[in-house]
Design goal:
Blueprint: H1 14-21, H2 24-40, E1 47-53, E2 56-62, E3 67-73
Antiparallel strand pairs: 1-2, 2-3
């Protein structure tokens, strides 16, 4: 599973800005959890997934100081023959 953060037309990536605003311990925990999600997908430990609607998911990660929730879309790669 590959994680790509939404980028605005002006090139701003709000999730990256948010992550940079956190204390270092939470940055490390969240980035490690997101890396696990990329490698292990829905089997990733310490991460809770919840399907909200068709294609829209919620991911919850507990940090050192707080819990964090992100919304994401799960998109399957497709090949056209």
């Amino acid at each position: 599973m590959k994680i790509e953060f939404l980028e605005t037309p002006s090139g701003q990536v709000s999730v990256v800005d948010f992550l940079k605003s956190l204390i270092k311990k939470d940055q490390v925990i969240l980035l490690a959890a997101l890396k696990n999600v990329e490698g292990l997908g829905f089997e990733s430990p310490c991460v809770n997934f919840k399907k909200l609607s068709n294609g829209l998911w919620e991911i919850k990660i507990s940090g050192e100081t707080d819990g964090y929730t992100f919304l994401f879309r799960y998109v399957l790669d497709s090949f056209i023959s």
